Amino acid sequence: MKLGAQLSTTRGLKTAIMEASERGLSVLQVFSRSPVGGQSKELPKTGTVSAWLEQAHIRPFFVHAPYFVNPAATDPTMQERARAVLAEEMVRVKRLHGDFLVLHPGHCQGIGDEAKAAGLEILAGTLRYMLTRPGIILMENTAGQGRELGSTFDELHELFRHLGRIRRVGILLDTAHAMAAGFPLHTTEDVTRFLGAVERGVGLNRVRGVHLNDNAYPVGSHRDRHAHLLTGHLGLPALKALLREVRDRSWPLILETPGSTVEAREHDLWQIEQLL
Ligand SMILES: [Zn+2]
């Protein structure tokens, strides 16, 4: 199984890559810059990162986009800023030799179905603009907090409908967000129902990976606080079923449970290894 985690790069990207590799992880996710804003970090020299990744046997390498811009903003100034920042992120991912840029769909600016529909259309425009650069974008399903888009696979279906025949956009499933959005993940049948909704909405063939997290808040709460595996609302039978599906489909698995180091996820990794 391709197993990995989101790690902090505060001690440098090379340290994060080596840390993952030393624990036997084969997948890594990082933020290429501060997720909440500020100047973007200097990038290592071209070529060096691919050598580190190769040496550490890490692939795929996921880069998470920052949260401080809203790709679905109707406000023209906010929209322009989001497009500029995210197109630059595409270039940064390429220079970091990343495989995917992971993106949250953003928030609609208004209430009701019309505002949602408008937000999804703008989001599609942002993605089209980003795709003027090379690279692959992965949209994450969300908890649906406030006016957050992308918590249902109908909304994500709508997004792909706007995008048409574009192939460089995929899906990254997050189990904590799915639970917050109203998908129980307690039993084996829950996992079947959840994947059924993914298949009907966007197609399982678009999925490029899974963020495996528990959620501290109840199912359907639309509140998202990642928790260590089996300490929140994720059930053991569902975790077993998810691991089987992930393995059978060769989806890379990324832990985004609390903490920013491998050590902080040691119990989660142990848990997964026990169940495999
Ligand atoms: Zn996630």
From TrEMBL:
Residues 20-265 form the Xylose isomerase-like TIM barrel domain. This is Xylose isomerase-like TIM barrel domain-containing protein. SUPFAM superfamilies: Xylose isomerase-like (SSF51658).
